[in-house]
Amino acid sequence: MTASTPIKVGILWDWMPMPKLDRFKIWDDYLLILKMIFAEAYEKRMLDRPVELVIRMPEGLPRGNVRDVVTAYRELVQEGCVLILGPLISENAVDLKIYVDSAPVQDRVPYVGSVGTEDCLSEWGFELNNGGHPEEAATIASIMEQDGIRSTAILLEQSLIGQHYTKFFKDAAELWKIDIKGTFFMPQVEGGDKSDVLKQARDSGAESVLVLGFGYGVAGVNAAMEKIGWVVPRYTVTNFLTWHFGTDWQEQMRGWIGLDQYDERNQVGQRFLDRFEAKHGARPAYFWGVYTYDQARIAVEALRRAEPLGARGVRDSLERVKGLPAASGAPGTWLKFGKYVHQGWMGAGFLVARKISEDGSHHVFHGTIEPPNELPL
Asked: Which GO terms describe its biological process (predicted)?
């Protein structure tokens, strides 16, 4: 009997070069979890042939360029992939959507991005968003209100991501009654003395700061605060996840509060981690471990129900993914797509707030979104 060819799934990993990852092996965990879930799906006959991962790792924004990300997508299509997982970065996803929407039908393959912007959603563009600009803005505003914060200074990275966050946070601040004392710009890349920016924030009269952008802007804020003698509560959105990038970042983010997708109370996630640990002797108990498990299960569901097993069939099958309990987020978070519903999370608790210890060594659960103390209507 002639052997069947594998199902090709593309990985569009546009976060390059990666920082030095010492404690959390984000890329290694990603590949190992994907391979484990796809292999189990084949062993359990959920898929009738194995999955082959085809990987492209372009250097997209913020350090590289969008063109290389689009080129990588085209290469994955030419390789015969019927589904693409990625991109990861919002600024690359916006132009990728424009390219895919204008490409000939035979050059379109559905992609499931991890990005936060809704501007990548389209007929072929899906998101299992590792965050989400509107949702993050509302969640962090709610957390600030719960913490008794009444005013903040926005420290804004000069980027599309930062501008999106700011627009949505202004809406959320109005609802949760957070007084924005000013917006102060920082470079998008890490490095440099931020003392002058922090002096402006201090002089605005704000009682806290909120960093909005891709995430590298948090570097140097703690040091600048200590230098000018103004140490106030520090908040951010899923920029918080940069804490996992290495010991240097853990030092940079001592005492910060931000948004994550790992919640130890979620038993779907804990059961997966138990199973992974029993099989591999490690426990990726952080946001990317449970997120990758959710992404892999969505991919399996799309592939197993595709009619036919081609780009259009997988695209239509993604829209039929319903009611999968999520490993990410607070208990009760679900996974669901649908017609004109191309974002995969159900439930406001897919984001949770966590706080980093004062020595930077670990972080703990801090809260979830709650309604404002007073509603306008």
From this structure: amino acid transport
Torsion angle in degrees (nearest 10) through CA of 121, 125, 130, 132: 0
Phi, psi of 73 (to 5 degrees): -60, -45
Whole-model pTM: value is 0.94
What is the C-alpha to C-alpha distance for residues 176 and 211, in angstroms, rounded to an integer? 18
> In the block, which residue shows the tokens 């991005």?
113
* Domain finish residue from 236, 257, 289: 236
Q: How many structural domains does the chain have? A: 2
Contacts of 48 (CB under 8 A, 6+ apart): 4
Return the CATH number at 154. 3.40.50.2300
pLDDT digits (tens, 9 = 90+) for 268-326: 999 999 999 999 999 999 999 999 999 999 999 999 999 999 999 999 999 999 999 99
In angstroms, rounded to a whole number, what is the distance separating the alpha carbons of residues 238 and 137? 10
Q: What is the pLDDT of residue 166?
A: 97
Chain segment 204-237, per-residue pLDDT in tens: 999 999 999 988 889 999 999 999 999 999 999 9
Domain that holds residue 39: 7-130+265-346
Q: What gap in Å lies between CA 76 and CA 12, rounded to an integer? A: 8
220 shares a domain with 184: yes
